[in-house]
Design brief:
The structure is a single chain. This protein is mostly beta strands and 113 residues long. It contains no helices and 10 strands. Strand 4 (34-39) and strand 5 (46-51) form a beta hairpin.
């Protein structure tokens, strides 16, 4: 079973930055389309950033220009650099291979105003 371990969340003031990491125990990590998701209570988990095996990226409009997704295939690790954080970015953040439904514990991000 694939394991996903997210880390790097925390409490930050609006305008601040955080860098999330996700270690993935997936033997074919390097060829999978990977994504960062986030979820707030009472709402569905949403995909906010994705990165292909070749490094091509895509972002949800609300994070475009502020968040940057990257990957290190040798370390089987996915990253999310989050800059200029806003209170509406407060959520639990998860990573996963696109299409998979096995989730890790996530990492909490709280942005204070």
């Amino acid at each position: 079973q694939v394991q996903l371990v997210e880390s790097g969340g925390g409490l930050v003031q609006a305008g601040g930055s955080l860098r999330l990491s996700c270690v993935v125990s997936l033997s074919i990590f390097s060829i999978r389309l990977m994504g960062w998701y986030r979820q707030v209570p009472g709402k569905q988990r949403e995909l906010i950033a994705r990165i292909g095996s070749g490094g091509g990226t895509g972002y949800e409009d609300s994070v475009k220009g502020r968040f940057t997704v990257s990957r290190d295939n040798a370390k089987k690790t996915l990253y999310l650099q989050m800059n200029n954080l806003k209170p509406e970015d407060t959520a639990v953040y998860y990573c996963n291979a696109i299409g998979d439904e096995n989730w890790g514990q996530g990492t909490q991000v709280i942005v204070s105003s």
